[in-house]
Write a structure and sequence with these properties.
The complex is a heterodimer of chains A (122) and B (844).
Chain A (H helix, E strand, L loop, with lengths): L2 E6 L2 H13 L3 E5 L2 H11 L3 E5 L5 H10 L8 E5 L6 H6 L4 E4 L4 H11 L7
Parallel strand pairs in A: 1-2, 1-3, 3-4, 4-5
Helix pairs in contact in A: 2-3
Chain B lengths: L10 H5 L1 H13 L7 H12 L3 E7 L3 E8 L11 E2 L5 H7 L3 E3 L12 H6 L3 E8 L5 E9 L7 H12 L15 H6 L2 H7 L3 E5 L5 E4 L1 H7 L3 H4 L4 H5 L2 H16 L2 E13 L5 E13 L2 E10 L1 H23 L4 E5 L4 E4 L1 H6 L8 H7 L4 E3 L11 H6 L4 E8 L7 E11 L5 E10 L1 H23 L6 H12 L3 E8 L4 E9 L18 H9 L3 E3 L15 H9 L1 E11 L2 E11 L5 H65 L6 H31 L8 E4 H19 L2 E5 L5 E4 L1 H17 L6 E9 L2 E8 L20 H4 L9 H11 L3 E4 L8 E6 L6
Parallel strand pairs in B: 24-26
Antiparallel strand pairs in B: 1-2, 1-6, 2-3, 4-5, 5-6, 7-8, 7-11, 9-10, 10-11, 12-13, 12-17, 14-15, 15-16, 16-17, 18-19, 18-22, 20-21, 21-22, 23-25, 26-27, 27-29, 28-29
The chains are: A alpha/beta (122), B alpha+beta (844).
GO molecular function (chain B): phosphorelay sensor kinase activity
Subcellular location (chain B): Cell membrane
Organism (chain B): Paractinoplanes toevensis
Chain lengths: 122, 844
Amino acid sequence: MPVVLLGESSPDLLIAFTIVFRRSGDTVHAAADGAGVLRLAGRVAPDVIVLNLPEDDGPATCRALRAAPATAGTPILLLSAALFPDADDARRSGADDYMTKPLRNADLVRHVHALTNTGEPV
Amino acid sequence: MVGIGMPYVDMTVLENPQRLAAARRARRLLPGLVVPLDAIARLAARATNSPMAIVAVMDVHEEHFVGSFGLPAVLSTGAPMPVAYSVCKYIVSADHPVTSDDMSTDPDLRGHALAVEFGARAFAGVPLRDTADHTVGSLLVVDVVPRAWTDADLELLVEISTLLAGLPDAEEHPGSDPGVLAGLDAAAVLDGVQEAFVAVDAIGAVRGWNPAAQALFGWSGAEVQGRQLDELLLTEAVGQRFRDGLPGLISSTGPQNGWIGQVPIRHRDGHELPVRAVVSTIRGRSGPFVCVFLADLSGQSDAERDAGHQRGFLAALLDSLDAPVAAMDVDGRLQVANRAMRRMHGLPDEATIADLLRAAPAHLRRADGSALPTRQTPLVRALGGEVVADQEILVAVPGRPVRTELANAQPIVAPDGALAGAVVTCVDITGQRRVERFRECQLAVATAVARSGSVDDSAADVTREVAEALRWPHVELWLLDDLTDTMRPAGHHSMLGDDFAGFLARPIQKGLGVSGAAWAAAEPLWVSDVADSAYVCNHATDPWVRMCVRAGLHSMVAAPIPSGGQVRGLLVCFAAGAEHDQTSLTALLTAIGDQLGQFIAQKRSAQLVQEVARGKDDFLSLVGHEIRTPLTVISSYVDMLLAETEADHAAPGDAHAAYEAIARGTTALRGIVDDLLDLTALESGHLQVSLRPADLAYLARRSLQRIRDSADANGVTVTADLPEVLVTTGDPQRLRQVLDNLLSNAVKYSPDGGHIMLALADDEQGVTITVSDTGIGIPPEDRPQLFQRFYRASNARHTAIPGTGLGLCIVRAIVEAHHGTITLDDTPRAGTTITVRLPPRGEG
């Protein structure tokens, strides 16, 4: 089962998503900001990274992950907090996929598994 | 008492025609006697030691005192005396002397008017007879005390009366028969002469005076007897000549030695009249007399006076006209200018033509303000033969407002066709032109403001237009600064020159000075003279007032610019010279102030609308954004809780039902947030549709599938008329959204047993999607708003059908992003038909 690295700025969602991924059988490592994500990324070797960070943190973290050799090829799913996100914006900052909130738990799990080739493509 | 006869009146005697004719002749004749009658009376009084004496001629009902002595003034006027005062009547009736020693003891005389009114107590009188022995009057002496008249008294009176018995005889006259002349009554001859006759003795005293002289000069013979002719009738210069020439005249003899000439004579009432005088010297029994016949020349003068009067009438007529009139003679000399013309040039009514000629040329301007050369003035043009119609002229009198006159001039042509001169009349159209100028000014101000889009940016244009319309040298526009609540100069137009650059550098404080007072009162304020107004504290030292005086500014108006119940600015205008046409100028400035105020108000409300619209978008985004995270938290945990309780299939329990309710609410909320953000993104252009080939038939079938359940639940049947494949150009996801929205709306608003029809069609014009239902329909009055955000038709709002009013809005936004159209079938029948038209493939 894949190792998910979660960067989530909302404490409530951090707990909720951690439970959601664990229940679907994944290993979850979570951080509340970009610095925490970058620290964990070197240690845990994630199969997929899910980021739901503020605008002043999310894209920068995304670019930093791409720049780091360990995570340069790791798929990244961006949960958009932006007003009008589109796929291009997400891709410009190096993400592979994006989802806008609000979202359903099942959809989130489906997108993550698709990125790790462990589920149906979305 | 001598007692010769009792006093009685014999009318037969008095009325005797021969006596009467003699008496009347005597009355004319006696004043002409060389012996003054008053002297006769005085002689009689002295001789008899009486205080009063009268020489009287008796008519029938009146008595004439032709000479008197010692009489009270009222009795010596020369006017005829009523018979009540007459004593003469007794003497004439008796035709011999009559006396009364004491009138108060005589029953017939004690009530006599002379006794009662003038205190006469005694009298003695003797008849006067003419040469034909007719009794014409009496010589009478009167005393105020009782007298015992003696025979000696009466003899003296008779003796004196004989002095009057004869008349001066006609002198021998060459060319006349002396016999004839001797038979003539000289006095009667003179009476019959129309010319005035005056005889003067050697010392220049009047001795003869005929009725014509009385008529001509106003003096009676009695009045002039013995008075100096020169003092009586002659002006000082002529009088001197008369005195100088008199000795020569007296010493010469005969008409040949006389003198004929025209002299002015002074009438009794003081006016002078010209007479032709024929002067000759005649030697009579009592010595030489200068005899003068005077012919009235005032008939001739009357004609002259008439002409003068006529000129006066014409002048008065012209002066009474309001229109200025002037005329030149053929030589270009100004001959006539009426009062209105003098006033037009600022001259007083009594100004002369010369005054006008001095002043006028400098006042005349062309309509454009440039000086008007003399050769182009209407009068001079008309003198050149031209008929000048409606030449517009400005009359600029220094220190007074410029007037606009419309001049009409034409040549004056004599009856023989020759040019005799030219005449000009003017009409003052200052008010009319001003009204036109003001109207143009308002239009120009509106145009300037509209073009620049702001009052601030058009301040220079606005002040220039106002200054030109008013013809005032300095106009300022001040606008309110909202933040500091102070007035700041926005722009100005000034002809004052560089010396007055600091004129605007003054603060306008609310309630202070003219502008500040207008601001505080929100009313236009007019001050006729700034330097003399109550709004300035210290006229002598205030540097700004001194600048006004130096710039020659007098009148000042401050008009507020009202907007939204507040003064948003001030229009402050200054006039050179004192303006007095307060009403129309204030009306103009008020109108322009209101105009600017309205524009400011419009501008503000437009800004407000824009801000509100932008605010709404921002608000929607913010709300949408901020709702998303908590919504995700809720749905995330509800999903987990549902999954846990679902596991217990045997007994789902209350908790599971509750989680399901929370999940439905969350889903509905998420739908609204999705729709809102979708719509905001679409309308703000943040979200583009990505066009590619899309099979509309496939999308429609998917959409029908999705709606089937809710349609069945509502008891609504759905039929479709779809081709197998209909490929068009579009964003498949968005087109699906259109189909979903249209179908779900139709199901939502169709009653149980209703019917929905979906049809797709394709031709050269493009693709048509039609969704018809048999629902509640859309009231006509709601149709225009149907595609607005949050708008729900009135009949939908009033039913329990839930909805946000966003669906159709999103549909329209998507259709328009595809360059398509959406229309509502407005045939009045139950239900609704919505038609979406998309461009042909490849053109979207």
